[in-house]
Write a structure and sequence with these properties.
Blueprint lengths: L17 H31 L2 H11 L9 H14 L5 H9 L3
Length: 101
């Protein structure tokens, strides 16, 4: 497996030990396998379920625990969420708490 193709920082490669490289590449392979499984499942669902069946399937997913994001995606997700949040002053925040806003 290629370090850069797996999505890792090129500058971090030389600080890795053989053991850490093995762990990192095994994790990347598991993520790739999981993504392939998810894509295959999505294709099968799209081909085999009607609208009602799809709605029932998606409703069943809501109860399952969500897997954590891989570390390399967490920063992007947090930045994306932060961009969509409203920016208010501390005074406005306190006014909202008091019910004045």
């Amino acid at each position: 497996m290629d370090w850069i193709a797996a999505g890792f920082d090129p500058g971090a490669f030389w600080s890795q030990t053989p053991r850490s490289l093995q762990r990192v590449f095994k994790g990347a392979a598991r993520r790739r396998s999981a993504a392939l499984y998810d894509a295959t499942l999505a294709a099968w669902i799209g081909e085999n379920l009607d609208h009602e069946g799809l709605r029932d399937f998606l409703a069943g997913l809501d109860d399952r625990p969500k897997p954590p994001l891989p570390p390399e995606a967490q920063r992007h997700a947090l930045e994306s969420m932060a961009r969509s949040m409203a920016v208010i002053s501390m005074d406005d925040y306190r006014a909202r708490l008091r019910g004045e806003a």
